From TrEMBL:
Coiled coil: none annotated. Belongs to the sodium:galactoside symporter (TC 2.A.2) family. It comes from Colwellia psychrerythraea (strain 34H / ATCC BAA-681) (Vibrio psychroerythus). One of its GO terms (molecular function) is symporter activity. Gene3D superfamilies: MFS general substrate transporter like domains. This is Sugar:cation symporter family protein. It holds the Pfam family MFS_2. Keywords: Membrane, Transmembrane, Transmembrane helix. The chain crosses the membrane at residues 38-56, 77-96, 108-126, 147-164, 184-202, 223-243, 249-267, 288-308, 328-346, 355-373, 379-400, 421-448, 468-489. Residues 1-492 form the Major facilitator superfamily (MFS) profile domain. The keyword Transmembrane helix applies. GO terms for cellular component: plasma membrane. GO terms for biological process: carbohydrate transport.
Length: 511
């Protein structure tokens, strides 16, 4: 069976609706919560976002490996959705709680709770994303499923981003700290209910060949020896991003050059001389579609993340109506649902690669127009924002279905499939892009002198907010369009690969 029933697509979508109560809530409001309610400086919050990305670089890969090697009566990935949900709900509440502590202890609390939130999200969302790759072997059904998924994601985001300011005002009655905390109690309860629906309504159907020569313990030990491949490039990027001086630049160049040399040596090794995780890494590093998607995932998340991370500041200070941000988010997310659901139809007409390029270019061009919007022109803001968002919503929908295509390509080429690892890298670059986007917003604002606790600094930071809503994010969209030109897989090739894999798996399914 390759065609998925409607109820299963809807049930799968509920999982991303739940995840985006966390993901889009944190992405859109956590920065402004940290600076304007919790009391952190913009620079300290920026460093927090960057440091947590380093931990994600390890945990996402580990979770992908664990998912690939999990075998239960519920499947490989579904049980992790069930087991992780209570922890995700708990840290969602804790991350938006303001304890009565000194500044230094508040900073420690923020690190602990935000790392806990991202770890719980990893354990939940990496298996959830990988689940799409094993629900059906059909690439066209995955595209349709991805459309449902992101319609659910945008609906979940709509609840948080559209109504959180009003809920904070309602529950807090003038005390934003209490308002945020009680609002998260409500969203945590909804999250648990939606995740249970996803677990109960979905099914894993693709059973890839398993590598009997490896086990999780030995592979995790093998991974520990290869952590520099993950950690050092991220550390170099973080230092260069945050300090932007000659020393961090030199360190970045040295690390990246060394990594390229080590990667070339690793690829040249024969399979019998490679450990389990090294074989997985070689499969990925020689998978051109996956490598390009890795870059695309980061660039599109920077594009979307910068815009979403700026909106709360933009409406609070540039427009002068903080509650209007909620209405703007509602408008964007309603358009996003339409964009996500249109992706399957449009990709059949244009092809995935062409549709991705068109979406990046048009959304980028519409975003640059924000630079010339007169202050307070709400109609122009809504018109441009919604037009750009229709095409922006197509990007993550295509990205995750194309990750499934790259998993098929890897299995077809190498005879081994690491669905969890491939999707974990996808969620990792999305979270990395989100973290760097949030940090970039704060770095730019700090560069313009912004201090959320000092209202006299607002006027000087308004030009920075204008750039963060226009040229800065648009530059990442244009870079993504240029990179996508080199993506090699066509619709015809995807179909041929899928048909060959079905024939290969038939004896396995009959055994």
């Amino acid at each position: 069976m390759t065609k998925l029933p409607f109820y299963e697509k809807v049930g799968y979508a509920m999982g991303d609706a739940a995840a985006n109560l966390v993901w889009r809530g944190a992405l859109a409001y956590l920065a402004v919560f940290y600076t304007d309610t919790f009391g952190l400086t913009a620079a300290a919050a920026a460093m927090l976002f960057l440091v947590v990305r380093l931990s994600d670089g390890v945990t996402d890969i580990i979770m992908g490996m664990i998912g690939d090697r999990t075998n239960t009566r519920w499947g490989k990935f579904r049980p992790w959705i069930l087991w992780s949900t209570p922890f995700l709900a708990l840290f969602m509440v804790l991350s938006f709680t303001t304890p009565d502590l000194s500044y230094s202890n508040k900073l420690i609390y923020a690190y602990v709770t935000y790392i806990g939130l991202t770890l719980a999200y990893t354990v939940n969302n990496v298996p959830y994303s990988a689940l799409m790759g094993v629900m059906t072997p059909s690439d066209t059904e995955r595209t349709s499923l991805s459309g449902f998924r992101f319609a659910g994601a945008f609906a979940g985001g709509l609840l948080v981003m559209g109504f959180l300011p009003d809920l904070v005002a309602y529950f807090g009655e003038g005390n934003d700290a209490i308002g945020y905390q009680y609002s998260m109690y409500l969203f945590a309860a909804i999250l648990i209910a939606l995740m249970l629906i996803t677990f109960a309504s979905t099914k894993e159907r693709v059973t890839p060949n398993t590598d009997e020569s490896s086990n999780l313990k030995s592979d995790l030990l093998d991974l520990s020896k290869n952590l520099p491949f993950i950690v050092l490039p991220l550390l170099a990027m973080t230092l260069f991003f945050y300090y932007r001086d000659i020393y961090s630049g030199i360190f970045f160049v040295i690390i990246m050059g060394s990594m390229l040399i080590l990667i070339k040596r690793l690829i040249k090794k024969t399979p019998k001389n490679l450990g389990g995780t090294q074989r997985d890494m070689v499969d990925l590093l020689t998978n051109k579609p996956w490598l390009i998607l890795l870059g695309i995932g980061f660039l599109t998340m920077m594009f979307n993340g910068i815009k979403y991370g700026t909106i709360a500041y933009y409406f609070k200070y540039q427009v002068g109506d903080e509650l209007m941000a909620g209405k703007y988010f509602i408008a964007l997310l309603l358009v996003s649902i339409l964009g996500a659901l249109s992706t399957s139809y449009l990709s059949k007409k244009l092809g995935k690669r062409q549709l991705f390029i068109v979406s990046l270019l048009l959304s980028g061009l519409l975003t640059t127009a924000f630079y010339w919007v007169p202050k307070g022109n709400v109609s122009a803001i809504f018109a441009l924002g919604c037009s750009a968002e229709f095409f922006a919503a197509i990007m993550p929908t295509l990205f995750f279905t194309m990750l499934g295509d790259s998993a098929d390509y890897s299995e077809w080429k190498n005879g081994r499939r690491a669905t969890g690892l491939i999707y974990s890298a996808g969620t990792f670059v999305q979270k990395t892009g989100g973290g760097f986007a949030g940090a970039l917003v704060l770095v730019v604002l700090a560069g313009y002198g912004y201090d959320g606790m000092d209202k006299s600094t607002i006027a000087s930071s308004l030009p920075g907010m204008q750039l963060l809503m226009s040229w800065i994010p648009a530059s990442f969209a244009f870079a993504g369009a240029a990179l996508m030109i080199f993506y090699p897989l066509t619709c015809k090739q995807n179909q041929q690969i899928g048909n060959e894999l079905i024939l290969r798996r038939t004896p396995l399914a009959a055994a």
